[in-house]
Amino acid sequence: MSQLKKVLIYRRGALGDTLLTFPVAEIFKKLGYEVTFCGNLEYLQLAKLSGLTDQIISSEFFLSLSLEKFDKKVIISTEGNLNPFPKKRIWLPIYYLKTLGLPRNFSLTLPFPLFQRKKPDLAILHPGSGSSKKNPPFELFERIENFLERLGFKVIYLAGEAEEWLLGLKPKLFYSTDILEIAKFLKEASLFVGNDSGISHLASYLGLKTLVFFGPSDEIIFRPIGKRIHLIKRPLACRPCFPKVCKERPCLDPEILFKLFLRALRYL
Q1: pTM of the predicted model, to two decimals?
Q2: Is the pLDDT of residue 79 over 60?
Q3: Same domain as 163, residue 54
Q4: Which of 16, 157, 252, 256 could form a disulfide with 198 if both were Cys (CB 3.0 to 4.6 A apart)?
């Protein structure tokens, strides 16, 4: 029996960056490769549990790996063989697969095995992100909270390290920095509303009805993977502009975004 070909995928980055790399691992698995994924070990647990990779390794040990044992090496880095930043505005999973000459028939739902009973009235709000420049004023989420509660939803805020300012501010709060615990909690919900963040990427990939506000960041490049996602954005000529964001931030006007949210909710 012939040995499986081996591929090493390296991607060091935040949660959203890592999740947008998962289709590469999935396609190599479909092609019969033994996949080793090197990066943020906590986030890569999601790939391992979902059957997208055979082995996960922390990026701390990348330099000590014996690269010659791999038939293919996909090093997603400015110093690697696949630049993480496309020269043109193209969705990252498609850019990766196209550059590598791989098929593009990847799943839009992460096959995460932890089953949670859905709560049809549970809505999760996540008002933060990895950069405050991408966050609309908090009043937007408070308006959404009040609106959803009037519709009969049970609304709970989700907070991690970047949202510790929510502690003590909102009594209905789920706080965690454990990605598997967060994924388990997300799978209970029927609706998720957030900003351009790693948690929004995860919610969409897990199959939730997901509404995501994109202000200064680029929704074409960084669109989350998912079947039931709706991006809320203003058609302004000045966007995307991240990380060079203006003080006025018209792309994150809470009044206009709330109206767009109401419109988007009807189409989910």
Answers
A1: 0.96
A2: yes
A3: no
A4: 16
